[in-house]
Amino acid sequence: MLDRVVAGIVPPKHHIAFRSEAGDLRYEECLTRAGFDGPYTIAYHERRPHEHRLAEAAHGFALPVAAPARPLAKRHYRSQDLPRRGGPAVDCRVPLLFNDDVVIGLVQPDAADPVYFANADADELFFVVHGGGVLRTMLGDVRFEQDDYVVIPKGLFYRFLPDAAPQRWLSIEAADIHLPRKWRNEVGQLRMDAPYSHRDFRRPTFVGPLDEGIRALVVKRGGAFHGFTLERSPLDVVGWDGAVYPFAFPILRFQARVGLVHLPPDWHGTFAARGALVCSFVPRPTDFHPEAIPCPYPHASVDCDEFLFYCRGNFTSRRGVGPGSISHHPAGVPHGPHPGAYEASLGARETSELAVMLDTTRPLSATAAALAVEDPSYQDSFIARP
């Protein structure tokens, strides 16, 4: 959640009668978090927003299923080699790695969603590797472009309208996606030393009542998809205010921190969630001690798994990876740069990498789709040859 926004027409006080110019009563809908103790948004509909008939769920993406257990090892998956499934985003999401807290996958849509979709299991975070489009919700439209993060709160229905250009998005389902609390002051404002400001985020552009002719809603709840039909368009909101809404954040607006010597990954923390931290690695100067080693030091992952999605740039600590590569370094075995990278980084003054990282507190399991694009030589690539 970012801050409170007000859009359209709202009454002077919540929970009071609010009528149109013709005298028709508006219907209040509260979208709340943590029961009624957390952030919330109140939207005002022209008609009753809770009229749904049961129907078949004709749409829905693949759910994660763990492949057979394998030995502990460093892993490299070439997501760029995944077959392009296509279709609308609501149908073509492919899960790759997951645990009880997060599901990480890839989406390559080439059509608009034909239904409205609400994820009642988790918040959603997308990173747009290629493409762009519009996220449509009852609170308004969010335009997104390449290199944007898109955050959608749990339970809010939406549909994606991708542009005609080829699309490739990283998808993350997780509970309670939020900005790390260490970047906020005591009143919730982003601190002046935070790696972004409130001005960096794109909030919804309010559209007002709209009828797209769509009367189907799919809700994901309990790891299953449930279908409903609607009597009228649910995009009948005349105004709203609150702190629960979707937004976009361009990764290149992230203000990377640089130190005298190498800083740990949490300084790159962009979003937090239950059991996970999402970090952004963007082009930046390197450490400025005259004897600094800019390359990440070898480290033992004893409390978390590390997932790294390589977008583009020069990945100085790795060889054999490229745009679309995913490295998974599990807890329990040390990992670090490839042979020669540590030494070669001496004297470097900048890095051009662009990557998205997740540290997860629970072990990540791979799906069959991930195994189909695994690089079997990755584990032994860390052994220095004479």
UniProtKB/TrEMBL annotation:
Presence of keyword rRNA processing: no
Active site: 262
Superkingdom of origin organism: Bacteria
Keyword field contains Oxidoreductase: yes
Entry binding sites for Fe cation: 299, 305, 335
Residue span(s) of domain Homogentisate 1,2-dioxygenase N-terminal: 115-249
Entry's EC annotation: 1.13.11.5
One GO term describing the cellular component: cytoplasm
Name listed for the protein in its UniProt record: Homogentisate 1,2-dioxygenase
Origin species: Sorangium cellulosum (strain So ce56)
Required cofactor(s): Fe cation
SUPFAM superfamilies tied to this protein: RmlC-like cupins
InterPro entries linked: HgmA_N, Homogentis_dOase, RmlC_Cupin_sf
Keywords, ordered alphabetically: Dioxygenase, Iron, Metal-binding, Oxidoreductase
Biological process annotations from GO: L-phenylalanine catabolic process; tyrosine metabolic process
GO molecular function terms attached to this record: homogentisate 1,2-dioxygenase activity; metal ion binding
Binding, homogentisate: 335
PANTHER family linked: HOMOGENTISATE 1,2-DIOXYGENASE
